[in-house]
Design brief:
The chain is 31% helix and 16% strand. The chain is α/β, with parallel strands linked by helices. The strands form two sheets. It has a nine-stranded mixed sheet, with helices on both faces. The chain has a six-stranded mixed sheet with strand order 1-4-3-5-2-6, with helices on both faces. Helix 8 packs across helix 13 (437-451) and helix 11 (385-398) packs antiparallel against helix 13 (437-451). The radius of gyration is 25 Å and the shape is elongated. It starts with a helix and ends with a helix.
């Protein structure tokens, strides 16, 4: 908050409410904004910032003073998220439009138009402007609204693109979680006049709005936000549902399967394979998907985090990176491309590790089991006495010895156990070769036993 703005806001709380009203309930009574949902994971965001020098900030302050009576260029505690489409099929044209700080063709004002985010046709989220800055995207709401543009020419063009819509929902949920924005305050540009936060001092612009993202579209969009529905969901069966998490380097889908009680807090997550030449755990994952899961248990299963490596029979992914050296905890450069344990150019450089990170942040499992080969042991990967209790139980149920493997930099379990205190992630090293049917059954039963 600027020193100039602070006295203005402290003059009178009553005046502030009169000028910028709190949202109202159906009965008309003012109410505080409540968080819309539990903490949501931050999606992958590409930083594609447009120029926003001091001259543009000064133009924004003049704009805010004229339209809202505010002497600031800062976006403080945003209360609304506004969805737009660009009217074109090119991300580059949208970027260039927002980067040029010239008067817009409709209202002929400065600063130039902009949005905080643009989601392209591939579902890549680009951040163009800091969330600390006011952007010109919606008359009457710029003072308190985050703008999200979607590359497309109609509502249907955007919502019919599964990858783009999935990215939009992930971004919006994260913003809601970060700023405690209600789902009712996630609106389309066409709904701007109905927002309780709409405020416009210029009389001629008080009814100005646009046609993008009409109420019918946004009702469906808000329902998806509320129930967590994601267009990446690809099907379901009697046991649960399958969710496309994202694509590997070579474009293969990585899929998670949710079975059991989706509402229970204490979930278990299983990765059948991480290295492409250590795939015995995939048979365990497939058996778990067909298992009768006890009531009160929520189970998430990823058969294979490295489909490209599995297709080639290599430990690494298609870029030659050992995924279990690519996580961010104590990451350091190991080897070079072609080496067995090449750690990549930077932490989380690979789409597969970023997919795993997103899923873990989303599910926040109490227990995560990562299957590897061929050492035939349960690794003491965790650090607490509770971690050890769970690992010891799995070892007893599976018949594998409990040992400690030398900790390596950039492993998934080190990242999880450090970043999610109170949860347990550990490695199970299966024996060499293909598992027998009895072995698959025994290890799957050990997973369910630990989960109980």
């Amino acid at each position: 908050m600027t020193r100039k703005l602070l006295p203005l806001l402290m003059i009178s709380a009553a005046l502030a409410v009169a000028v910028f009203p709190l949202p109202r309930t159906e009965t008309g009574a003012a109410t505080r904004v409540q968080p819309a949902r539990d903490k949501a994971a931050r999606p992958d965001i590409v930083q594609s910032r447009i120029p926003f020098p001091d001259t543009r900030k000064a133009e924004t302050r003049r704009y805010a003073r004229r339209h809202y009576g505010l002497r600031t260029h800062l976006l403080e505690s945003p209360k609304v998220i506004v969805q737009h489409f660009t009217g074109s099929l090119s991300y580059r044209s949208a970027y260039d439009t927002f980067a040029r700080d010239v008067p817009d063709i409709e209202l002929h004002e400065l600063p130039g138009l902009c949005a905080h985010f643009v989601i392209d046709r591939r579902g890549v989220i680009h951040q163009l402007v800091s969330l600390r800055l006011i952007c010109r995207h919606t008359v009457g709401l710029n003072w308190t609204a985050i703008g999200i543009e979607h590359v497309g020419v109609s509502d249907g063009d955007v919502v019919g693109n599964r990858r783009q819509l999935s990215a939009s929902l992930r971004l919006t949920r994260w913003l809601q979680s970060r700023y405690a924005i209600r789902t009712l305050d996630v609106i389309g540009h066409n709904e701007s006049l109905s927002s309780p936060y709409h405020h416009e001092r210029v009389r001629s612009l008080r009814r100005q709005t646009h046609g993008d993202f009409k109420p019918a579209t946004m009702r469906t969009y808000r329902r998806r936000l509320e129930r967590g529905a994601d267009p990446a969901t690809v099907g379901s069966d009697a046991a649960g549902r399958s969710v496309r998490l994202g694509r590997s380097v070579q474009g293969r889908w990585i899929v998670a399967h949710e079975i059991g009680d989706g509402h229970i807090h204490d979930k278990v997550l299983v990765f059948g394979a991480v290295h492409g030449n250590e795939t015995a755990g995939m048979a365990i994952a497939r058996r778990l998907r067909r298992a009768a899961v006890p009531a009160g248990l929520g189970l998430w299963i990823v058969d294979n985090l490295n489909p490209d490596g599995a297709a080639e029979g290599t430990r690494q992914n298609a870029r030659g990176v050992d995924l279990n050296r690519n996580f961010s905890r104590h990451w350091r450069r190991i080897g070079r491309r072609g080496d067995q344990q090449y750690s990549g150019t930077r932490a989380l450089s690979e789409p597969e590790t970023r997919i795993a990170r997103r899923l873990i942040r989303r599910v926040q499992p109490m227990v995560t089991i990562w299957f590897h080969q061929p050492l035939a042991l349960v690794d003491r990967s965790g650090g607490s006495s509770e971690d050890l209790r769970i690992e010891r139980r799995f070892a007893r149920l599976s018949g594998l010895p409990l040992r400690q493997i030398q900790p390596y930099p950039g492993t998934a379990t080190r990242w999880q156990n450090h970043g999610f205190p109170g949860t347990t992630a550990f490695v199970v090293e299966l024996p060499r070769g293909r598992l027998s049917a009895a072995g698959v059954k025994r290890y799957a039963s050990a997973v369910l036993g630990v989960a109980r």
